[in-house]
Each structure stands twice: as C-alpha cells, then as structure tokens.
Records
---
Amino acid sequence: MAIIINIDVMLAKRKMSVTELTEKVGITMANLSILKNGKAKAIRFSTLEAICKALDCQPGDIIEYKSDEA
C-alpha cells in the first residue's frame, strides 16, 4: 500500500510557496515538510481541512492511493 501526498503539485498549480502555505495553515515548516515528503504517519482532519481551504482543493487532490500490485 502506498499513500502519495501531492502537496507540491497543488502548490505549483496555485503558485504558492511552502512558507505561504505554512502561514495560512498555521503549522510549522518542519511538520509540513514531514507531510510533504510522505514521512507522516497521520494527519489530523483539522490540518487537512486547513490545507484544502488554503489551496482551494479537495482532500483527493492532495492524498492519493496507489496499490503495490500495479
């Protein structure tokens, strides 16, 4: 099972910097980096909601599932 985090893609589409996103969401650069790099074990719904609001997107635009079988 592979969960892919596409925050970089959405940041590029919205022409937004990582710093700007951290300020809008209210999380640290370190925590956003952990999430962005796929190292996070979990994400709070409130954080996901804030990211979606800041990037004007849906959770499915940020989080993707890819089967290992493919």
Note: The mean pLDDT is 93.
---
Amino acid sequence: MSDQSRQKATVFVGGLDNQVTTQTLHDAFIPFGEIVDVSLPKPELQSSTDPHRGFGYVEFSLPEDAREAIDNMDASEIFGRVIKVNQAKPQKDHNEGLGSKTAVWEQEGYAAKYNAVETDPNGADNDREDPMQGLEGLAEAGPRPQ
C-alpha cells in the first residue's frame, strides 16, 4: 500500500481518556472495517505517568472504511469523554514548523517564502537607506546629543 493510500485509510482520534488502550480503540472502530494497525503515541517525557498522549491513530485496510469511521465516530464518547475523529495528516519533519527545535526563520525555505524583495509598482528594486544604519556605536537610545 502506498504512503498516500495508507494516509487516506488512517484516522486520527483525539481527546482520549488515560484509560483508553489500543484494544479499546480497536474494539470501538472494528465495526467500520478491517483494522490494520492501532497506535497510541507515548508521552515525550519518559517520567510522565500518562500511558499515552491523549490521541491515537487507527489504520484501516480501505480508505472507505476510514471515511465511514470518521462520519460515525466523530463527537462520540469513549470513557465519558467526547472524542474527535479526523483524517490523519502526514507527519511533519521534526525540524519543520512551529513544533520544531529550530527557529522558524532559520528553517530552510523560510527566507525564500517570506523575504521578498520590495519593488515599486514599475518593477524596480527600492534601494532605500536603512534607518538603523550608523546606530551601532550609540550607548543609549534616543536622539544624538548636539
């Protein structure tokens, strides 16, 4: 199965109680089709007493089964908590986006996307003088003494 078809056959289940196990999720979603895999990601901190991070993934053998599960299980209850069921999204690289450990402006592609060169309406580059130029040597903010 290709990654894209696997992605379409996987659902995200959020808002899970700590009592929920992979067997609980399997039992809750089996009426909608053959389940290939159920996973509950563990907390990042090993010292945490939580058994999982409060969400999980259920992978079906067919994308139609995943769609059916989303339609029927979204906003239902498991262990007294309302769960959210959506199509799973591709996993981000840990060095991308807001959750990364690298500053957004230092990530590859950021400069190309957001640092556009200012141009005037005629298409020529504006070579404006930088208003901060020459302020490096000042000891305090404010106007220069006369």
Note: The mean pLDDT is 81.
